[in-house]
Every structure is written in structure tokens, then in C-alpha cells.
């Protein structure tokens, strides 16, 4: 199933200025799902921080945050995480990492507007 503009409208319920945050929220979910599917959490990757708390405990009632924070508990896991994120393509999203030492920015490069 492709994610459409209509799905996003339901996600942010028509609130002014809500389209981009809804798009980013769904894209974050897709990136997290991809990391899980690739088995990185089983290798010791820990999702932490404000976004983690909101997604796991507060849901839509929590404060929206644009970043995903991780702790790589196992030696050598951080580069594997960054390489995996660089390859993420979960239609309609494509994420690409812009690396800066031990950090990566994850812009959403494509979203279909069907």
C-alpha cells in the first residue's frame, strides 16, 4: 500500500502547518521499521530520547520532535546503522544520510502526492 496525501491529512487532521510534521512522523516510523527489519535492535541498537518517549508512550499527545536518537551498545554498530539508513527506501519515502562524524541528518528525499 502506498502512502498518499490523504493518509497524511488523516494523520494531522487538517491542522494548519501539519502536513510536513505528519510526513516526517510517518517517515520516522518507516526508518525505525527498516532498522528493526534489518535486525539492528537485536544487535544492541537502542532507540532513546524524546522521540522515543513520544512514539512508545505518549503517542499523538506527546511533543513532536524531529530527531531520532540512538545508542549503539555494541562495538562497530554505529557505522552499520548509518550504512543501513543510507540504503533506506520504504515507498514512498527515501532517506539519505548526510554524515557528520557520529551523526547523520536524514532528509526525506521523496514523497508521492497521490
Radius of gyration, Cα only, in angstroms? 14 Å
Determine the strand fraction and express it as a percent band.
Answer: 15-25%
User: Which secondary-structure class do the elements indicate?
Assistant: alpha+beta
This entry's quaternary arrangement is single chain
Order of strands, main sheet, comes to 1-2
Number of helices: 4
Number of strand elements: 6
Q: Approximately how much helix is present in the residues?
A: 40-55%
- What shape does the CA trace take? globular
Q: Round the mean pLDDT to the nearest integer and report it.
A: 75
Show unreliable segments.
108-114
Distance between the termini: 12 Å
H/E series = HHEHEHEEEE
Q: Outline the biggest β-sheet.
A: 2 strands, antiparallel
Number of domains: 1
Q: Mind explaining what this structure looks like?
A:
The strands form three sheets. The chain has a two-stranded antiparallel ribbon with strand order 1-2. The protein has a two-stranded antiparallel sheet with strand order 3-4. The chain has helices at residues 5-12, 19-37, 50-58, 77-86; strands at 45-48, 69-72, 89-90, 93-94, 98-100, 103-105. The chain has one domain. The relative contact order is 0.18. Helix 1 packs across helix 2 (19-37). The longest helix has 19 residues, at 19-37. The model is unreliable at 108-114 (pLDDT under 50). The chain is an alpha+beta fold. A hairpin with a 2-residue loop joins strand 5 (98-100) and strand 6 (103-105). The radius of gyration is 14 Å and the shape is globular. It contains four helices and six strands, in the order H-H-E-H-E-H-E-E-E-E.
